[in-house]
Amino acid sequence: MIEIKERDFPSFFAAPFHAYGTDTPYVSPMKADLQRFLSTKNPMFPDATRYTYFTALRGGQPVGRITAHLHQASNDLHHEARGCFGFFDCADDGETAEALLVAAENWARNMGMTRLTGNFNLTAMQQAGVMTDGFNHAPYTDQIWAPRHLPKLLEANGYIRHFPMTTFELRLDSHPAPKVLSDSQRAHLLRQGFAFAPVNRSTIAERLEDARTILNQSFRDNPMFVPVSAEEFNFQAKDLKWIMDPRISKVVHYQGKPAGAVIAIPDLNPLLRRLGSRLRLSLPWHYLHYKAHRDRAVVIFQGVMPEFQSQSVNPLMLGEMAREMIAAGYKTVGGTWIADENRASLRQSEKAGAKPLHRLHLFSKELS
Predict the structure, then answer these.
(1) For residues 86 and 146, what is the distance between their CA atoms, to the nearest angstrom?
(2) From which domain of life does this come (predicted)?
């Protein structure tokens, strides 16, 4: 028999560990971060009526979970009545999946929504999608991983996949820095007035505001995008200064104003796996060990202001970033999802030598 609990955080956090076991590539967000996302501290949720979350238990053991929430700014901007689900993690059990999805659907209907779509994982710069291929590849920070049975469970409950996306990985240890821009092109851009702005702990607040400005301008015409407020951006990025490696993020200015940014951080997933995504007394030792041996990085955002697109600003940043990563001992770099319809970014990834890592889709169901 399946028991559904609502707003029970301990079982919600534990569910994927029981559902998937320890031998899969799954990595949980830090427990404290997940609890913060599921609270009114999250700027997406001005009050607790905008979200909820459910855990499915079988025999008293949590074996599945799901969130249900509204992104009201998205619905207002795109004239939608769409509810969102997120953090859908579930054992390969049709009864459990159905119970969780019905709970989320009923909540969305009661909120007046006519469609339910996910995964969207609870922040303005949301992790998105359900993995549909690449299950054997370990995820980087800010990438979703789940087993191959999840798409089947969703489709068995009437969900349709759409909006295909791909994540990428670039190996830096098997070939030299990608030659995405010639030395002469690089010199020409710098003579024109483009310059790298300093990225370090004392300037990180300024650089992140540069990145937010670029994000809102460069993605404004993308489907489903909603401009990100400073409060929303800082909510997710507030701890970056403690984990960042100042060498590997690049922000380009043109005549003192932001032109492009590529924000990269060390991949924290190996550390989170060792800690079980929980704060422990051994954290300082584990962190020092991780920091001494880290060799994976992940690009969590890249973009160029519209007026500077097609002027080689992105290759300028990516080439500089790759050289710095190689010099710092990084062997691989991952990237968060790129939608199939974003042909320019897909071409740039291919040109840089990146290879597809994971395949993802959104899954939606019309609510009668």
Answers:
(1) 12
(2) Bacteria
Going through 39-159 in order, the beta strands assigned E by DSSP cover 51-58, 61-69, 82-90, 115-118, 130-133
**Tokens describing residue 89:** 């993690």
Cα 149 to the center of its chain, rounded Å: 21
How does pLDDT run across 106-145, given as a tens digit for each residue? 999 999 999 999 999 987 566 899 999 999 999 999 999 9
Instruction: Name which of 262, 263, 280 is nearest 271 in CA terms.
Output: 280
Quote the CATH superfamily of domain 2-165.
Answer: Gcn5-related N-acetyltransferase (GNAT) (3.40.630.30)
Intrachain domains 2-165 and 171-364 with the same fold: yes
Instruction: Give pTM, 2 decimals.
Output: 0.93
Q: Which two tokens stand for residue 109?
A: 């209907």
Q: What is the pairing mode between strands 296-304 and 332-339?
A: parallel
50, 42 in Cβ contact below 8 A? no
Q: How far apart are CA 306 and CA 314, in angstroms?
A: 12
Residue 239 has a pLDDT of 73
| Partners of 165 in the β-ladder | 339, 360
As a whole number of angstroms, the distance between CA 112 and CA 152 comes to 27
Alpha-carbon distance of 318 to 36, in angstroms, equals: 32
Residue 140's closest CA among 25, 49, 9? 25
Residue 230, both tokens: 């400073």
CB 279 within 8 A of CB 315: no
Considering Cα of 55, then 56, then 57, then 62, what sign does the dihedral take? Answer: negative
Q: Where are the domains of the chain?
A: 2-165, 171-364
Alpha helices (runs of H) in the chain, residue ranges in sequence order? 9-20, 31-37, 72-78, 94-110, 149-156, 183-192, 204-218, 230-237, 240-243, 269-275, 283-293, 313-327, 343-352
The pLDDT tens digits of the residues spanning 26-47 come to 999 999 999 999 999 999 998 9
Neighbours of 313 (CB within 10 A): 21
Name the one residue in this structure whose structure tokens are 């291919």: 350
Instruction: Kindly state which CATH superfamily the domain 171-364 is placed in.
Output: Gcn5-related N-acetyltransferase (GNAT) (3.40.630.30)
The answer to whether residues 65 and 54 touch, using CB atoms and an 8 Å cutoff, is: yes
